[in-house]
Amino acid sequence: xxxxxxxxxxxxxxxxxxxxxxxxxxxxxxxxxxxxxxxxxxxxxxxxxxxxxxxxxxxxxxxxxxxxxxxxxxxxxxxxxxxxxxxxxxxxxxxxxxxxxxxxxxxxxxxxxxxxxxxxxxxxxxxxxxxxxxxxxxxxxxxxxxxxxxxxxxxxxxxxxxxxxxxxxxxxxxxxxxxxxxxxxxxxxxxxxxxxxxxxxxxxxxxxxxxxxxxxxxxxxxxxxxxxxxxxxxxxxxxxxxxxxxx
Length: 247
Known about the structure:
The chain is mostly helical. It has one domain (8-246). It is built from ten helices and no strands. The chain is globular and about 40 Å long.
């Protein structure tokens, strides 16, 4: 296998930009990377396995960076981690047992909804469904959907935590740190239930992502969340609509 395939270097850039946004906003790494991989024509289980394998390293680097800058709420962290890991394992096992061609349109719809959610939250911070849910419920729901769609943990958890009144820096840092363990659970489940063998794409995504992680944590308090969410949400919606039309 040629490591420097036509997909390798574009995915390095995708990994860098996705992690820069994720580290700054607490969301959108998996969403961005999954949308691009889906536009390349890869099946849903392959996409989720690849993205989460890369995220083991990017979320680890991001979590350490946020811990260094003291952006963590330890009590909330422990409420999110275990349910998120359980939900992630359930979602990964469910996805690995389904036919890729049959699931692909539903994944595009899921990504489209996440894109719309980003645009909505660019103007409205509250979430009437999960804003009052206990931390373990939030972790379970976000972990399950993250595994099935290849992304969505931060998109669901971070704005919900902010809507509860938590300072953005702690919501972002806590969500990112917990995501490492959720990602690890998802990746281990795929390791035993699904064989994808495209480590070159994992290396490309994690290489760009690890480089961007410290910068994302550093600018977490300075970036315009509305502008970033508008940009990412619009991009995801466009790619999702194109993907649905092709499906």
